[in-house]
Write a structure and sequence with these properties.
mainly alpha
Length: 314
Amino acid sequence: MDLDEELALFPNVVVPFHTNNVDLSVNANVLFGLTLHFLNVDRGDRQKFDIVKDLYVDIAKFLKWAVERGVAFERPDLSLVYYPSKFDFYWFLARSYAALKAEKDLPFPEMEEVFEILSQLLTTTATNQILEEQGNEGYWQEFLGNYAGKERGEDRLFATAVALNSLLDIWRNNQDTPTAVKESIKKGISYLQNNVLNCQSSKQNAFFSGSLKTNSTFPFFYPSTVSHFINGTEVDPKTADQSYLIQDLIYAFKGYTSLEQYQKMTQEKHFGTPMYEFKGFNQPGGIVFPYWSSPAITYSMTMLAYAKYLHSGL
């Protein structure tokens, strides 16, 4: 829904902040959905594929840029708007690669291009990023329960299962799998085997969440090129205070600018407030945000990792 479509229905239908968010995990899921659709439902239908071919390739290039820049690890508050788990994102991306890799003959050259992008990306940069996050005991973890200098590891089992699914989708049935990857996967599987059925081990996760998580996720404190009320009245964020932050305000960045210029813009206050620094989701005085947790998903991802490992050839 674009702005004109939303305003035609306002206030009965409201897009949060009147802007569409760009979420890495959502984009990875779109890539996966399109991949499966044109490998199965409309395989070989060039006319239908032409409608989305540019979008399909552009998503892959965008996600390649995001992984190479490490934004999912550095700024999950902004890049993983709805799926705060960075390992969710890497698995969502690895699924498309696994689906393409399983095909002997891809129906379109654009799918070949995306396969090459993902192959180069996931077997190098993404794999290294995942391996670097593994703890000495074989687990991966996110942020649940880790607060005030104490690690409770409430999402360790979930993060470990999802990270393993990522690595297995990238490397299974690959005779050139690096030794470091094989050892990492074995350690992770062993950790799950030793802990997943332990009643004392937490099966919690944050597989989905609300978009506002910390002060750093409020869009009004970032630079913009669009700032006006629904009735068209312009608002200067450099002089206005926070009393202007009402539902009728449309605030966004349209177009592009140089990195140097944008960095200068980030030094300015917007609505009387400097841009917040992201220091993690569990910070004193932070925002309490909603998230969805399902122990059943932890068990399901664990069983999926077991099944892939048994048939991985690793």
